[in-house]
């Protein structure tokens, strides 16, 4: 039969890395005595109680409402898309991909489910699970970032190799990995889909954590667009050309104490506060605003 070759060929569309892994898996299976692992490289109905969950599952958060909707669909139509498992013994399997389908099938009351059977070592299994989930599941940006990080650290892949595996440019992979450097509060909002990837990419360009959090809270409170946040970040990073030129001509270098104060005020107000002084220690504090709403926000912080 050509069923096995067709299955492998179909999955190769998910990415060259995954396809190569599955081809390697077929070769291992063909060299393994059937008496040791049973029938492999086929699709068949398997008792759900014989399927262990995937210890390498990259997705940790499942929407309960969406899961119940899938369970109801399975009750009405059955499970249309099989899961993928590896065979541990004749009556014991471990999930490679399809955690959401497995959970929903259990919730729907199924006792068996269709599954593709593969053989893979732990490293192969991890890579297969991560890549297939990235390609096929609706992961949020943070889950993708964690999956990329695990592929690099646990599967010993470089960013260039990872990009080839998942069909992404190295810069795209790097943008996701940078999300893991954000404060936990911001990462949680990305996980819960309260903050978009575009907003997060703008925030990550700010070095100061307190300023990152200040901008993040403004995004939530004022519903700032990605473009507004990018403008705000550019202002925080460089200021306007006229301001910079005037500062160079008239301002004396700030002392470490005043520099620290300027950073704290910038974080507090969520905008680029500037302290200027001259040689006689006279100066001013400048608090810029971008709109009437932004001005009112600053006035509230000043209790005015």
From TrEMBL:
Alphabetic keyword roster: Chromosome partition, DNA-binding
Origin organism lineage: Bacteria, Pseudomonadati, Bacteroidota, Cytophagia, Cytophagales
Name under which the protein is recorded: Chromosome partitioning protein, ParB family
PANTHER family: CHROMOSOME-PARTITIONING PROTEIN PARB-RELATED (PTHR33375)
Family listed: Belongs to the ParB family.
Residues in ParB-like N-terminal domain copies: 44-134
One GO cellular component, as annotated: chromosome
CDD domains recorded: SPO0J_N (cd16393)
GO process terms (BP): chromosome segregation; positive regulation of sporulation resulting in formation of a cellular spore
Annotated Pfam families: HTH_ParB, ParB_C, ParB_N
SMART domains attached to this UniProt entry: ParB
GO MF: DNA binding
